[in-house]
Write a structure and sequence with these properties.
Oligomer: single chain
Number of helices: 7
Strand order of the largest sheet: 4-3-6-1-2-5
Order of helices and strands: EEEEEHEEHEHEHEHEEEHEEHEEE
Strand content: 25-35%
Largest sheet: 6 strands, antiparallel
Helix content: 10-25%
Structural class: alpha/beta
Bound molecules: FE2/S2 (inorganic) cluster
């Protein structure tokens, strides 16, 4: 069975603290259902009041227990339930899990690959590195962390990549030289990246400026990387007049769907643009957390991707119809 069809109850087999705030959680799943592509996501149902919310995590492949489903969860200090709930899981607990596609499906057409990971963005790279090395590709990886304590997968990746791994620790004064990295990239190089929004924006901009092939830049986002603290906000739907409150632990897309509005979506990670909504007027409170909108669209502050972006507070009126979904420009 492919990861895309995963839909089952998994049992927590073990939890292991890799660092003070990153925990590996391994799940026992029925035999034969795991066939997860490197970089695949899985989505967990998390109880919330009388209902549920969902959280997606990249599958970790550290070369151990291939029969189990492994993820790594960073405990967010401001967590409103997601990471805190995952950290509360103990061996024997059950949780529903489904597949959530793969934002960075591996491609093997190039011969030269760069993996760029920031912080917990390393998780999908564990499988990518292993798969690319196994298929004989040249792989260079840059793994950026704030402190050495955060380098949860440095040892595992070192075993896979050896000298191909460059670990940059911010607290040790080791900064990523992004210009040099981008200048070293040729038209045949494929770059996979996952990390904070600021890093990804810089890479995307530099990539475009150099005219590098768009299809050679692959990335995925963190759904929680914003420029402002996560707060509740209000939305009015222009077509229905409904006024909605989006709590700090909710996202606009889920609230729209739960309130009976018909909206398009796909990735739920701010990448595809299908959930893009047009505001009736510009709003400077928009906290863009997607990687889909172009810099000029962001600057206009008159649209947002409902799955990840939000307001830093206040109110906005949006249209749910008449949008050129998935088209950036
Ligand atoms: S569903 Fe893909 S950007 Fe929101």
């Amino acid at each position: 069975m492919k990861a895309d069809h995963l839909d089952l109850t998994a049992t927590v087999a073990e939890t292991v603290d890799l660092t003070p705030n990153i925990r590996m959680i391994r799940f026992a799943v029925p035999q034969g259902v795991l066939n997860l592509e490197a970089g695949a996501h899985v989505t967990f149902d998390i109880p919330k009041g009388d209902g549920k919310m969902t959280r997606s995590y990249s599958v970790v492949d550290d070369g151990k227990y291939p029969e189990m489903l492994s993820i790594a969860v960073k405990l967010e200090p401001a967590s409103k339930g997601g990471s805190r709930y995952m950290w509360s899981l103990r061996a024997g607990d059950e949780i529903h899990v489904s597949a959530n596609g793969n934002a960075m499906p591996p491609t093997f057409s190039a011969s030269d690959y760069i993996l760029l990971a920031g912080g917990i963005g390393v998780t999908p790279m564990t499988g990518m590195a292993r798969t690319l090395i196994r298929t004989g590709k040249t792989v260079r990886m840059i793994y950026c962390v704030r402190t050495s304590d955060e380098a949860a997968f440095a040892e595992v990746l070192d075993q896979v990549l050896g000298e191909g791994l460059e670990l940059l620790c911010d607290s040790a004064g080791q900064k990523l030289d992004l210009l040099r990295l981008l200048d070293s990239i040729g038209p045949q190089t494929v770059l996979f990246m996952c990390g904070p929004q600021g890093l990804m924006e810089s890479v995307r901009t530099g990539w475009q400026e150099r005219g590098l092939p768009v299809q050679n830049l692959r990335y995925e986002t963190f759904a929680n990387s914003g420029n402002f603290p996560t707060r509740a906000f209000q939305v009015t739907v222009a077509e229905t007049g409904r006024k909605l409150r989006i709590g700090a632990d909710e996202n606009l897309l889920d609230v729209l769907i739960a309130s009976g509005h018909d909206v398009l979506f796909d990735c739920r990670r701010g990448e595809c643009g299908l959930c893009k909504l047009q505001a009736t007027e510009p709003c400077t409170n928009i906290d863009h957390r997607d990687v889909f909108l172009s810099p000029s669209e962001r600057a206009r502050n008159d649209c947002l991707c409902a799955c990840v972006s939000r307001l830093s507070g206040g109110h906005i009126t949006v249209h749910i119809d008449g949008i050129q979904h998935g088209r950036s420009g």
